[in-house]
Amino acid sequence: KVLPELRVAYGHICGYVCIYIEPVTGAASVDHMLPKSTSWQEAYEWRNYRLACSLMNSRKNDYQDVLDPFEIGDDWFHLELVGYQVIPRTDLEPMDKARVQATIDRLKLNDRDCLSIREEYASNYFQREISLDWPEKLNGKERRCEGTAGQRRAKACVGMPVEDAANQGLI
Fold it and tell me: 122 partner at 20 to 30 Å CA-CA among 18, 79, 81, 147?
């Protein structure tokens, strides 16, 4: 019952891989940040829900070594534009860098499918087939992401000029 509300709240953007989940054909799912198997008392708490594409949700599973999208610090993840790999920011504290790398590894954020979709988005952007605000246009309204670093990061993925995103290390 909460999936439609999560889709709206997240602007149809997967909280883990930061891609647009198509409303009709995309497989959106509710991820329980704290797994039901270990934190059953949180199973029906809104604060424990994250919108995830079904692939990321299945990869996260009950593992707890994946960073919470709402607790990620600014610029912890970078996108290199040659091969479209997600990498940890080079000057992160060692513990944070290890957590970022663990998330990349657990979710397989650099597998062939993730690299391919990032390359497709970049190609469509550079060919001017889409703009950075196309998810908001598809949703019929501008998303409001304010507050946490994770929300700002999600907004930055789709809502700022490419030069600014590059300068901030988001792409």
Answer: 147
